[in-house]
Amino acid sequence: MLRNEIRSGMTHVGLALKDPETFAVNWNDGTIVYRWPVWIALLTTAIIGTTTYGMTMGLLGGASDIFLKGLICTMSAGLSWAISLPALYILNSLSGSRLSPGSTLLAALVTVSWGGLAMLASIPINWFFTVSIPHSGFVLAVNLVVFTGVGISMIDVFNRVMRHLEPTRNATPAWWLYLVGAIGTELFYFFGLFNFA
Questions:
Q1: DSSP labels for 150-180?
Q2: 197 assigned to some structural domain
Q3: Residue 13 domain-assigned?
Q4: pTM here?
Q5: CB-count exposure of residue 55 (10 Å: 0-12, 13-18, 19+)
Q6: How many other CB atoms are found less than 10 A from the CB of residue 68?
Q7: By the 8 A CB rule, do 59 and 47 touch?
Q8: Helix-, strand-, coil-residue percentages of the chain, each rounded to 5
Q9: HSE (CB half, 13 Å, CA atoms) of 84?
């Protein structure tokens, strides 16, 4: 039973990453009711992506820094999303949105999961340049480029999902991802994620 639930969750995550708009619309319309393994699998994808990418950020500092950066990256990203999520629902509702809290959470979770996958895909880039040119300034520049690219792709995914969830609305709440980015940047700075040895 549990094996089937996990397999179903992974199948749905594959759809969420391949076609996030359809995935979210199916939930919002009531076509498909995603059970708890799907939600857990989406969150797990985001956690694995941020943790493993964060670990590559600690390559210049040794084993302890590798694990610390993985923890800091995941914790900071998770906190920034969790802190700003209520603002998404409240301010989006005030601006005329009729999305349910579940659909709003799913749109955010699909975006986070997609971002985690983008972070996983960026690991070879960070690893290659960190090992090739182990200078802290250069490694910082590479990581800033990766984070910017992942952020832009997440904005695109979130906007597409929200447009499909509410096709009659002209505006999408992209401002929310800027809020997530601002909070995340503050937390990354506070916890020293971008301090390279």
A1: HHHHHHHHHHHHHHHH-TT-S---THHHHHH
A2: no
A3: yes
A4: 0.87
A5: buried
A6: 19
A7: no
A8: 85, 0, 15
A9: 22
Average confidence (pLDDT) over 40-52: 93
CB 119 within 8 A of CB 49: yes
- What's the residue count for the chain? 197
User: First and final CA of the chain: distance in angstroms?
Assistant: 47
CA dist., res. 77 & res. 81, Å (int): 6
C-beta atoms surrounding 121 within 10 Å:
15
Whether 72 is in a domain gets the answer: yes
Q: What integer best gives the mean pLDDT of the chain? A: 88
Q: Is residue 196 part of a domain?
A: no
User: What domain range is 30 assigned to?
Assistant: 2-191
Q: What long-range pairs does 57-65 form, CB within 8 A, spacing at least 24?
A: 57/126, 57/139, 57/143, 57/193, 57/194, 57/196, 59/127, 59/130, 59/131, 60/130, 60/134, 60/136, 60/139, 60/196, 60/197, 61/196, 61/197, 62/197, 65/197
The pLDDT tens digits of the residues spanning 67-120 come to 999 999 999 999 999 998 898 888 888 887 788 888 889 999 999 999 999 999
Instruction: State the total domains in the chain.
Output: 1
Distance CA 9, CA 13 (A): 6
Torsions phi, psi for 24 (to 5 deg): -70, -40
pLDDT on residue 9: 67
